[in-house]
Amino acid sequence: MNFRSPLILASASPRRLQLLTQIGIECITHPSNIDETPRDDEHPEFLVQRLAFQKAQATAQQYKDAVVIGADTIVYLDGKILGKPADSADAEKMLCTLSGRTHTVYTGFTLLDTATQRCICDYETANVTFGILDADDINAYVASGSPMDKAGAYGIQDDFGAVFVTHINGDYYTVVGLPLAKVYTALKHLLW
After folding, report:
1. Following DSSP, what letter does each residue of 140-157 receive, concatenated?
2. If you average pLDDT over residues 93-103, what whole number do you get?
3. Is residue 184 in a domain?
4. The domain that contains 52 carries what CATH number?
5. Residues with catalytic roles
6. Is 19 part of any domain?
7. How many domains does the chain have?
8. Which one-letter DSSP state was computed for residue 160?
9. 1, part of any domain
10. Residue 165: beta bridge partners?
11. Band of pLDDT at residue 159, cut at 50, 70 and 90
């Protein structure tokens, strides 16, 4: 895909970069360092869109003519938002909570054209069911360090976290961290 402006990914996530590359979108990564603390009683769909927008906006200040892509993913269960774990104990607790249950993954994204200030914000959800997790598997997974940079303390791609998932109802790529179909359609709308 060819765009008139460079694309900037406001994220350090290698998974998001890989997904964009997978569909032929070349971009530069320029992570933003915003405060990702949820507001009191903030609904998950608003949280992921707000954080995606703030990430895009923070990175966009460095570019005069570019399209900045911001994204944020959370796991939601029992009225609680599960972001990235604070430490190993938090990761273990999250995985125990998710064991044998269905949770919802929310991924929000923002596309911000710095030249025109046009912006598209949206989100997608997917329901993910975990099997019953074995304590040894949880401990080994947490000890690997893999859960520490992932919402809900697991990754469905590239690592052992994939074996925890027994069923997905919704867009797989939302669970990975970027709903590709919606992002692609929004990019076409914004730039073509």
Report:
1. HHHHTTGGGGSGGG--SS
2. 97
3. yes
4. 3.90.950.10
5. 72
6. yes
7. 1
8. G
9. no
10. 130
11. confident
